[in-house]
Design brief:
Oligomer: heterotetramer
Number of strands of chain A: 7
CATH superfamily of chain A: Thiamin diphosphate (ThDP)-binding fold, Pyr/PP domains
CATH superfamily of the largest domain in chain B: Thiamin diphosphate (ThDP)-binding fold, Pyr/PP domains
Number of helices of chain A: 11
CATH topology of chain A: Rossmann fold
Number of domains of chain A: 1
Shape of chain A: globular
Protein name (chains B, D): Pyruvate dehydrogenase E1 component subunit beta
Cofactor (chains B, D): thiamine diphosphate
Strand content of chain A: 5-15%
CATH class of the largest domain in chain B: Alpha Beta
Strand content of chain B: 15-25%
Strand order of the largest sheet of chain B: 3-2-4-5-7-6-12
Structural class of chain B: alpha/beta
Helix content of chain A: 40-55%
Strand order of the largest sheet of chain A: 1-2-3-7-6
Distance between the termini of chain A: 43 Å
CATH class of chain A: Alpha Beta
Order of helices and strands of chain A: HHHEHHHEHEEEEHEHHH
CATH architecture of the largest domain in chain B: 3-Layer(aba) Sandwich
Pfam families (chains B, D): Transket_pyr, Transketolase_C
InterPro entries (chains B, D): THDP-binding (IPR029061), Transketo_C/PFOR_II (IPR009014), Transketolase-like_Pyr-bd (IPR005475), Transketolase_C (IPR033248)
Shape of chain B: globular
Order of helices and strands of chain B: EHEHEHEHEEHEEEEHEEHEHEHHH
Keywords (chains B, D): Oxidoreductase, Pyruvate, Thiamine pyrophosphate
Structural class of chain A: alpha/beta
Largest sheet of chain B: 7 strands, mixed
Bound molecules: thiamine diphosphate, magnesium ion
Number of domains of chain B: 2
Largest sheet of chain A: 5 strands, parallel
Number of strands of chain B: 14
């Protein structure tokens, strides 16, 4: 792998057609998050961040099933999706570090990644806010007769907020080309899902809008991919929205300060056995697509690249105060 | 030049915009088949069809959010909010999302949406359907807010709002929908955002009004006939400092006329800014003519008193011009508010 | 029937134990609404109003199954509920006419009726707003260990708004003593229900929260009563919320100006055959509880009373401007 | 007198209130088992149990509405909104319902709820989690809004808010949660609503600050040491006209210090009201020291410049005292905002 810079996004996205490259991307996401965690611990990053370890399979399969012209609304837990969709680690890390070269120029931060070239709208720090927006993008596609699709990715906790309900109903009644992907990682902040809703099989909420609701093992990249493929092609064919519930697990705490002491004993460990990276790696070796050595080499290359990225980003320029005055109105005031 | 109703001017602006630009689509509750609860979309479904003219479920947060998404991918959606209050569940999408997309995308994702909402008192809709609430939007860099005061500005500001690359909220004084006025349509009828109008010139006193208080202020000024300049602010954020400051430089006196309570109203921003910028040219204390700090009452006579009418404005301005002092509003003069 | 004035609310409520009195109340509501309509037509009422003809059976059965200490949140279409719960016609009409003797003193109007003595909170002019409020009243009862129940009454259109979703989930996860009563009268303003949601059997939305969802023929006072009884007793027994969907029909237009020309041909006529008053009247006669003559006499008495009410209210005092300055802060400013 | 953190002062206020009054119950996201995202409810679940201390689903409109209902039947709920922005879907319940119940019930149904929400910039939470937005609430007769500036006011205003018979929103500057300060608890520590504090007296200039700008204004005043009176507004609606007017009557000069953009901010109301009421006693133009009219930036250095800090306040006040003219803010002085 070589350092990818802005402009190569789509190529980076298309590389995922290769199963080995899919594993590589998942590995990159995992390691990227570890680095972000370290940089925080070292005081080199300001504010807060939300790591996505445990949901790499979902992020990568989503990227694989979408076209670069499709649109994604995601959340503050969005580093993995950004990387999966094709954003290079430099752009993402620079933003997280508030650098001038970050994807928003350093005014957004970890919760606000954006790359129109791969269809990523500014990620949403408000729970649920991205669902109606995805429906709206789909409305545009439908109105213009385009075969593009919009996808909203959101958490289990977001399924309890009003925007979820309104967006699904709107999409259902208008048969919009949108897929609602619920990343059910068992927790919303420090609350286990069963503390905040009696219905934990969230795909069943699709019934309220007479649309398909499909659960899937979100730790399994192939299974997830298959379900998303079906949902995306339904949308693209004009058959309306689907609610996909990917059952995943949040390996990290909610945000950087969180040690996740509220987890029942053994829960994390049980889920770790189903780590999407472990599963994907074993499948590649078992299927003969790559040897242990191939993968070890590839992992080393990713590690080295991320070293180089981290070094380059840290040395990059900070924005000047003028940055906060730009991009507020269409025409500079 | 045709005299048409304000609601017809709005429907014309929508249809002209939809003819001019295929990316304009409109939606809201009962705006398609029923042509709008206030008939502001008459004829549009018939002309533009059900893809571009849509009835929505009762889901203000959902469809305002949908406007954000549609705008972010290149449409120019116009969402209708029947009564401004209904934005109380949708401010997130306007203030915290739409207004910030350009900033959060390094200038690459604009959100050229328009939200139209009816506002204000005067028709007996009661306290939950008669507020103006432009304060909900006024502290939001990236979001523009315009308020028409007659058929021409209803047409022209809406055309500008739809062409504007930023999110714009147009607050339409509901009481005006049925009023008639002259209205030039087409490009010649477009009224720019951010520019105040000066429908009456004078050099003794600057009166800044907005929306439904413009005509009352004008009528009061006619009666007094003593060099009163009346400014129709038209765009309340960002507002036209130049025009107002130039007027005050000439008159040395400033009064704002608001239909709603003083607290939290737009008048404070005008008075504060002008005072800071033009302190030495002020010859008398600037002040605000407003409703009292109470919820809008239902009873017809009470509702009529709530918002400052021609008589009240005339009284306060006359007293002010005569004495140079700030007059009491009716509820203090009459000792009504204990 | 004699003119009932403030203070006798509870007695008026309790009268409903008698089936003939139930019919009488339903008849009163229907005639009351006709008068309101006439007064509007005569220009004697300001603003707008939303008539409830067609939902009298629901209103009366609800009043019958609740105690005066229970709490109801209702909507702008609330004249019937107010009368059913025990408010005398004078208080309601005076408010609608903006009179000083109205239940809010004339500052509220048709959309804002209120009578704490019978548990009616100020009715809600914002669609959906009453649902979380009812859940909150139920939360108070649960916290204090009281066996009181809260009921939210709302329309089919309200089932599409976020507050519906959030309130049902909250009530379900906390097992609150609340009953959600959806008055599915087929229309939300000028839109038929199937234009704004693909799921028109709204009780099925209960499945999203793992609570019971029960449909009922809202034109039949006995059937409605039975379903409400079950839901109210579940709530009172601490077994949690129920979503009841009463299938009714809005005989009038949405609000006063509306001629309801959007209705499919014959629809109104078909529903008219199931007019709750016609059904209830026939059942009384068939069951021998009253003769035609009894009922005709009773109807005449109601008509006369309403004449007297209308006359008295019209002659009543208007509020003075001081009224708008009262009751804003707890202590007068 | 103990020096405790602001978040501990808040937890103390909640527990003292819950001990005093059985009708107090609290809820919000992760406030029970996790003791609050900002640890403002430490120990409360353990002491008061799961009926009175509840974790909610992510449903701001739902649980703010539930607070309205619980309050309407006699409880005194305190709902926590983690970040003020999340009220963007719940204003309906506060502004259009809670604030109007007393009015719409002829005085028979009060809504003694409290909503606590964290506000403001300074911790790198980015543009959707750093606004202050008190403008969303300020035009609402019937609704009170208080903003603490240290441990004592955090404790004391919250106690008052909970005892108050009307709905009160307490906006807590998030950046203060970890700060320590002296804090008297119990009845002696209660700080009344609607009364401004005067932590520093002077006769040359009145500075009105709120929330996190109070300490910056005080520190700047210390440095300048030229008769600057600093007022901590404490309650922003309804605000204490008497104290501010008395101060300006003495000093003849008024400056407000806001952490957020000028447009739509609370400072306009103060400047406008004082100008109208005390025009003749003003010896120089009143003005507002604020953030620029931009969204809150994420980058640490940029965020630090966004909100007026001690140095900026000192500079502007010094210039003003010296020249009697309104100084330019840093972005104009430095030519940064093109
Ligand atoms: C409207 C709103 N309420 C609360 C929050 C605070 N918050 C941020 S993340 C989060 C948990 C979300 O959980 P979930 O939807 O499951 O997503 P996850 O974090 O697990 O990816 C909460 C409550 C918010 N950002 N927006
Ligand atoms: C949040 C909100 N959106 C829109 C409206 C305008 N409005 C008033 S009544 C109504 C229709 C409601 O329909 P439904 O819930 O079925 O009740 P019904 O009127 O049939 O009793 C609408 C859209 C409102 N009052 N509140
Ligand atoms: Mg989660
Ligand atoms: Mg209906």
């Amino acid at each position: 792998m070589t350092l990818v810079r802005s402009g190569d996004h789509v190529a980076r996205r298309e590389a995922l057609a290769d199963p080995v490259a899919r594993y590589e991307r998942m590995y990159e996401i995992r390691r990227f998050e570890e680095r972000v965690n370290d940089l925080f611990a070292q005081g080199l990053i300001h504010g807060t961040t939300h790591l996505c370890a445990g949901q790499e399979a979902l992020d990568v399969s989503l990227a694989l099933e979408l076209r670069a012209t499709d649109i994604v609304t995601a959340t503050y837990r969005g580093h993995g999706i950004a990387l999966a969709l094709g954003m290079p680690a430099t752009d993402v890390l620079a933003e997280i570090m508030g650098k001038a070269d970050g994807c928003t120029g350093g005014v957004g931060g970890s919760m606000h990644l954006c790359e129109p070239d791969v269809g990523l709208l500014p990620t949403f720090a408000i729970v649920g806010a991205g669902l109606p927006v995805a429906a709206g993008a789909a409305l545009a596609f439908q109105t213009r007769g385009e075969d593009r699709v919009a996808v909203a990715v959101f958490g289990d906790g977001a399924a309890n907020i009003g925007a979820f309900h309104e967006a699904l109903n709107l999409a259902a009644v208008w048969k919009l080309p949108v897929v609602f992907v619920c990343d059910n990682n068992v927790y919303a902040e420090y609350s286990r899902i069963d503390l905040t809703t009696p219905l934990t099989d969230l795909h069943r909420r699709a019934g309220s809008y007479d649309i398909p609701g499909v659960p899937v093992d979100g730790m399994d990249v192939d299974a997830t991919r298959a379900v998303l493929r079906e949902a995306v092609s339904r949308a693209r064919a004009g058959e309306g929205p689907t609610l996909v519930e990917a059952k995943t697990y949040r390996f990290a705490g909610h945000s950087r300060a969180d040690q996740a002491t509220y987890r029942p004993e053994g829960e994390l460990e049980r889920w770790r056995e189903r780590d999407p990276l472990v599963l994907a790696r074993a499948a590649l070796v078992a299927g003969g697509a790559a040897t242990e050595d191939d993968l070890a080499g590839l992992e080393k290359a990713v590690d080295e690249d991320l070293d180089a990225v981290a070094e380059a980003v840290a040395a990059g320029p900070d924005p000047t105060p003028a940055a906060m005055f730009r991009n507020i109105w269409a025409v500079a005031a | 030049m045709a005299r048409i109703r304000v609601r017809q001017a709005i429907a014309s602006a929508l249809s002209d915009a939809m003819r001019e630009d295929e990316s304009v689509l409109i939606f809201g509750e009962d705006i398609a088949a029923a042509e709008g609860p206030f008939k502001t979309s008459e004829g549009l479904l018939a002309e533009f069809g059900p893809l571009r003219v849509r009835d929505t479920p009762i889901s203000e947060m959902g469809f305002v959010g949908a406007a954000v998404g549609a705008a972010a991918v290149g449409m120019r959606p116009v969402a209708e909010i029947m009564f401004m209050e209904f934005l109380g569940v949708a401010l997130d999408q306007l203030v915290t999302e739409a207004a910030k997309f350009r900033y959060l995308s390094n200038g690459r994702v604009g959100v050229p949406l328009v939200v139209r909402a009816s506002v204000g008192s005067g028709l007996g809709f009661g306290t939950q359907h008669s507020q103006t609430l432009e304060n909900w939007l006024g502290a939001t860099p990236g979001l523009k807010v315009a308020v028409p005061s007659d058929a021409q500005t209803a047409y022209g500001l809406l055309r500008s709002a739809i062409r504007d690359p930023d999110p714009v909220v147009v607050l339409e004084p509901r009481v005006l929908y049925a009023e008639r006025g002259e209205c030039v349509t087409g490009d010649a009828g477009i009224v720019p955002l951010g520019v105040a109008r000066v429908p009456r010139e004078g050099d003794a006193l600057t009166v800044v009004a907005l929306g439904q208080t413009v005509r009352a202020a004008l009528a009061a000024a006619e009666r007094i006939d003593a060099g009163i300049e009346v400014i129709d602010l038209s765009t309340v954020t960002p507002w036209d400092r130049e025009t107002v400051l130039a007027s005050v430089a000439k008159t040395g006196r400033l009064v704002t006329v608001e239909e709603a309570p003083a607290s939290g109203g737009w008048g404070a921003e005008i008075v504060a800014t002008v005072t800071t910028a033009a302190f030495r040219s002020l010859q008398a204390p600037p002040f605000r003519i407003t409703a009292p700090d109470v919820p809008v009452p239902y009873n017809k006579a009470l509702e009529a008193r709530f918002s400052p009418g021609i008589g009240e404005i005339e009284h306060q301005l006359t007293t002010y011009l005569r004495t140079g002092e700030v007059p009491d509003p009716w509820w203090l003069r009459e000792g009504v508010a204990a």
